[in-house]
Write a structure and sequence with these properties.
Layout (H helix, E strand, L loop, with lengths): L6 E6 L3 H11 L4 H4 L1 H5 L10 H15 L6 E9 L9 E11 L4 E10 L5 E10 L6
């Protein structure tokens, strides 16, 4: 069962191939994600991961790991604080801040941080529902 202050962490990283595939699926072919020469002339100095690709780990975790199967992802707010780069180790951290038992829902703080430096890259808040795991 999900409880207030419960936390879950998930380590991940994306390759340039992952970024290229995301660009194909979404149609977001902004050169800052795909072209090292172009990106080198930007404030980022090298290609960055699409922000929504970075945030996509939230969906994976909610649906498969925490709380897992049967979870319905209702809402997500996002703040893009720092760029994410390929082949860098990141950690997604989830903290339950509220449980609404009568609706089988929970509010979960969601963050992505650089695993090495601890610096926040993304943060936000999700609302999820799971009749079997949120009571």
């Amino acid at each position: 069962m999900i409880e207030i202050n419960q936390t879950y962490t998930y380590a991940f990283k994306f390759s340039q191939n992952d970024v290229n595939l995301f660009a194909e699926v979404t149609g977001d072919k902004n050169l800052v994600h795909l072209d090292a020469d172009f990106a080198s002339k930007t404030v980022f100095k090298k290609p960055i991961i699409h922000g929504m690709l970075g945030a996509s780990v939230f969906s994976k975790v909610f649906g498969v790991m925490f709380p897992g199967e049967g979870t319905i992802y209702l809402k997500q707010s996002l703040n893009f604080l720092r760029p994410l780069y390929v082949d860098v180790d990141y950690e997604a951290v989830f903290k339950v801040t509220e449980v609404i038992s009568k609706k089988n829902t929970a509010i979960v703080e969601t963050i992505v941080k650089n695993k090495l430096t601890g610096k926040l890259c993304l943060n936000g808040e999700a609302s999820i529902m799971n009749a079997d795991k949120i009571k």
